[in-house]
């Protein structure tokens, strides 16, 4: 999302006591968010059980090879946050726009505008510097998340997560549906023609059949049962910075 060239926050009146670096150990006012600026793109895989009100069955197993794009734009100037119990503070942030499309069908799946912000330490409540994510998703959903940050030498460790439904409050009582067996044809699952292209069957078989590999490694559907590694939202992708 491009901001107007002359857009810049200028708190009036200016807060003479507000910090200019919410994370003192990091030179940028964006703190740990400074490395996000720019365009990111990659490929991923999405799996989701979704309602199906038209086919005579209440569920449909949707599988998508995805094209993922994220663009972060720094917001010029300090973002004022006025208060009484908590004295005025300045935050610093970025806008972002996430776009996810079905790579083979060239059809949009998800769009999400939002903000990331670096927040200095506060006295009421008493908290260290934090980061905030605000997201808006076109299903009538908005999200506000705030927490501390940390760095790691490698990517996150995401355990194997199954997609089998289970009885309410009884996660050990899972339910098998025939759509999960990928070598059996089903009109209640995304068809192979919408996913398959040369060279992907082996990669996906490793993920679907054996339960191994990262969520962004495969991009098609082979035989076996679903055993992909995903975030809790059923989607995984590997992104790299673009030009």
Describe the structure.
There is one protein chain. This protein has one domain (31-237). By secondary structure, it is mainly β. Strands 1, 2, 3, 4, 5, 8, 9 and 12 form an eight-stranded antiparallel beta sheet that branches. Helices cover 4% and strands 38% of the residues. Mean pLDDT is 79; it is low at 196-234. The protein contains one helix and twelve strands.
Write a concise keyword list for the protein shown above:
243 residues; mainly beta; two-stranded antiparallel sheet; eight-stranded antiparallel sheet; 1 helix
What's the SSE blueprint?
Blueprint: E1 38-51, E2 59-74, E3 79-81, E4 89-102, E5 107-119, E6 122-123, E7 126-127, E8 130-137, E9 141-147, E10 166-167, E11 170-174, H1 201-210, E12 235-241
Antiparallel strand pairs: 1-2, 1-12, 2-4, 3-4, 4-5, 5-8, 6-7, 8-9, 10-11
Short description:
The chain contains one helix and twelve strands. Helices cover 4% and strands 38% of the residues.
Q: What fraction of residues sit in β-strands?
A: 35-45%
Question: What is the tally of helical segments?
Answer: 1
Total tally of structural domains:
1
Structural class: mainly beta
Order of helices and strands: EEEEEEEEEEEHE
Instruction: Please report the total strand number as a whole number.
Output: 12
Q: How large is the radius of gyration?
A: 22 Å
Largest sheet: 8 strands, antiparallel
Q: Can you tell me the overall shape? A: elongated
The termini sit apart by: 16 Å
């Amino acid at each position: 999302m491009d901001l107007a060239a002359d857009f810049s926050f200028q708190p009036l009146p200016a807060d003479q006591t507000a910090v200019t670096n919410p994370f003192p150990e990091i030179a940028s006012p964006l703190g740990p968010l400074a490395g996000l600026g720019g365009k990111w793109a990659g490929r991923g895989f999405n799996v989701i059980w979704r309602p199906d009100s038209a086919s005579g069955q209440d569920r449909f197993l949707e599988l998508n090879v995805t094209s993922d794009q994220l663009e972060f734009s720094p917001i010029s100037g300090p973002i004022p946050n006025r208060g009484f119990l908590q004295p005025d503070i300045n935050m610093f942030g970025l806008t972002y726009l996430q776009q996810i499309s079905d790579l083979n069908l060239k059809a949009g799946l998800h769009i999400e505008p939002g903000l990331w912000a670096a927040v200095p330490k506060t006295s009421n409540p008493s908290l260290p510097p934090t980061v905030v994510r605000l997201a808006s998703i076109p299903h009538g959903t908005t999200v506000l998340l705030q927490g501390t940050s940390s760095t790691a030498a490698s990517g996150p460790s995401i355990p194997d997560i199954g997609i089998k439904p289970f009885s309410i409050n009884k996660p050990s009582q899972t339910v098998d549906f025939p759509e999960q067996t990928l070598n059996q044809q089903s009109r209640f699952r995304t068809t192979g023609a919408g996913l398959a292209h040369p060279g992907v069957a082996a990669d996906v078989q490793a993920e679907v059949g054996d339960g191994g590999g990262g969520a962004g490694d495969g991009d098609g559907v082979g035989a076996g049962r679903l055993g992909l590694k995903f975030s809790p939202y059923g989607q995984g992708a590997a992104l790299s910075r673009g030009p």
